[in-house]
Amino acid sequence: MIHALHIVIRGAGDLATGVALRLWRSGFRRLVLLEREMPLSVRRLVCFSEAVREGVWRVEDVTAQRAPDIPGVNTVLAQGRLPVLVDPSASFVPKAHPDVLIDATIAKRNLLGTSMDQAELVIALGPGFTAGVDCHRVVETHRGHGMGRVIASGSALPNTGIPGAIMGYTKERVLRAPCDGIFETSRSIGQTVAQGEQVGIVNGMPVLAGIPGVLRGLLPHLTPVSSGLKLGDVDPRGDASHCTIVSDKALAVGGGVLEAIMEHFNTGPDPHNGEAARLWPLPLQ
Predict the structure, then answer these.
(1) How far does Cα 204 stand from its chain's mean position?
(2) Distance of alpha carbon 137 from alpha carbon 277, whole angstroms
(3) What is the C-alpha separation between 277 and 255, in angstroms, rounded?
(4) Is the whole-model pTM more than 0.85?
(5) Exposed/middle/buried for 63, CB within 10 Å: 0-12, 13-18, 19+?
(6) What 3-state class would DSSP assign to 22?
(7) DSSP secondary structure code for residue 197 in this structure
(8) pLDDT per residue over 233-265, tens digit each?
(9) DSSP label at residue 48
C-alpha cells in the first residue's frame, strides 16, 4: 500500500515542515524528520524543528514530538505524532532502509552526501542537486512560475542569494548577524518593528530592522551565530497571522514532493494487465 511507505525527511525547517504537512495530511503516517541539536529555523512558529527545543510542537493541525532515540521513533508514531529525531549525520537512514528519502535541508549544495542508493526514491529540494546524479527527483524552490515543479533530469534554478520579493522588498527585509557571537534579543515573532529599530545585538553590535513591518521570523535569544547568518525577517505586509500558518511556498514545494512520490509508486506494472484495463469497464453513455 502506498500510504504505508516509510519516509525520512532530512531537516525540519519551514520548507521541510510544509512537505511533512502535505504528506501527513495525505495519509503518509510513517514519517520521521531528522534535525540538528540547535536548529536555525527563523520561522520557528511554523517549523517542526521547534520540537527539538520544546519537546512537543504543533504546526496548524499536526503535532510533532522529539524522539529521544531511534527506538523512540515508533513510540512517538504510536501516539499519533510526528517524530523529530536529532540526527544531523542521518545515521537513522541506513538502519531504517526508508522507501523515500527527502533532503529538505536547503543547504544550496549537497553538503550531506545525499545519494540515490539511500532509498528507492530520493528527492532533494532546491539548488545544489542534479536529478539523475545524486537524487531521483528535484523539486524547484525558487519563487515564480516553476515553484513546486518536479524535475526529473537536471537541476533547480541556481541560488541567487536574493530573497523573494514581498511588496518590492528583498534583501532589506532579512536580518543578518553583523559578526560572530551570541544573538541576544528581547523581541518575539509577531511583533511590529519600525525601520531602523533595534531587534537585538550580537557581541554588542546592533541588529536593525531595514524596513517597517512584522517580525515573521526570529532566532531564539542566546543563539550562537556566525557573521552573515540569517537571524530573522520582517514582513512589510504587517499581518501577524502570517506568522502562524505555513507559507504558500512551503505548501507548493510539499505538493511537488507529494507528486514525485505518487508518480514513482503509482506508475509500475499495470496490475490489470493491459492498456484496455485503464478504460472504464462499462460503456459510458
Answers:
(1) 32
(2) 29
(3) 28
(4) yes
(5) middle
(6) helix
(7) -
(8) 999 998 999 999 999 999 999 999 999 999 999
(9) T
